Amino acid sequence: MATSCQRIIDNKINKHIGDTGNSSVNVADRVAAVSESIKELYNLFEFDFTNRRYQLNYYDTVNDYNLTVNVPDFTLPVDLRREDDVHASPFTLKSPREIATEINEGATEYSFGVEQRNRGNWLLINYPSQNSAVTLHSCDSTVDFREIVLQTTSDAENLTIDTSEKKKGSGSINFDLDIDQAAVQRMTVEFQLNGGIDLRKQVDLGAMIFWVYLPDVSGTSSTVITGYWGSTSSNYHSATVTTDKDGNAFADGWNEIRINWADTTATGTPDNGTIAYLRIDIAHNSAADDTDFRIDDIRMVKPERLYLHYQSWYVGVESTTATNYLTDLYSSLNVPFYSGVYDYFDTYVGHKAASLLFRQMGQDAEANNEDTLAEREVARLKKKFPHHQLEEFSGFKLKGLKW
Known about the structure:
CATH superfamily of the largest domain: Galactose-binding domain-like
Oligomer: single chain
CATH architecture of the largest domain: Sandwich
CATH topology of the largest domain: Jelly Rolls
Structural class: alpha+beta
CATH class of the largest domain: Mainly Beta
Radius of gyration: 28 Å
Shape: elongated
Largest sheet: 6 strands, antiparallel
Helix content: 10-25%
């Protein structure tokens, strides 16, 4: 049964420092020492007891996912798995550089890794999902059985295919902003999908994902992008987004956009078995004309559930009845994460906390003695406590070289 850190204070710390009252250090200091000792325990081991699981919606062709936003307690990856009944092949943990190369070369091996960039953690995945992306428009040509037009009642003009700046394939759609063309503070690109595309399996589950290039995000409004798809220009689904696929504010340059089908509103009666009409609106509040807006690689993707097993850095929960996790203990009522499962960790935490408190009191000899006792306990724990941390595999080779 899980119990609060008061147990550690009463049964361990107070005995070690020879003080059951508050004459030497107060309760807050004792709790802070427990919190610091648990963190030190994490640093010494790759403990399974800190492992947690995060359910990820994986979208085929989308290879990076923001862990800083969605998994704020992430420390280290443990494993990535499909559903239990379909997890036939394991994912291999690899370096971000190797995964990027494999994605670029179209490798089909299941692999994942974590990359630190922009003060955050990003999960990289190379995996050909069973829910393959459906290409709605490659944006490689203005007329390729999928005609593209700029709506003349919007502020978009000068439609071209840009073969230099693109995200996939041989080109992207390029157009300019003329604020006086229609004076509606909106640029609209329409796509006629000749023959229609059957998206009945995607209804309320899939998402339209595409790339948008914004030359100057300060010239766009807060309700920036709206996506439409349907059987005709009068029968469609539509929804507006104000952030990129990871919930970040739009930035200058390329932004990957995701519009969830479940978030759309239907206009008319769209036939989801013959999707033949697409439309993308980019709202703006620009006071001046601008050039080189771009759209590329429009697809509809039904997500597949993957499960990221990872090592957490939470040290406990608020109380025996609460479920909110803590990165620092602040009260004797807080419950250490391991309590009720691995209570024998109390021995190490008690000695380490006593060491910290003795140093706080200026009693270095006593602190050194408690450190020695804590180290002995670490040696015992290493012999009996399991961990299953994956080792990063590297089969990286420079293309064209033989080894």
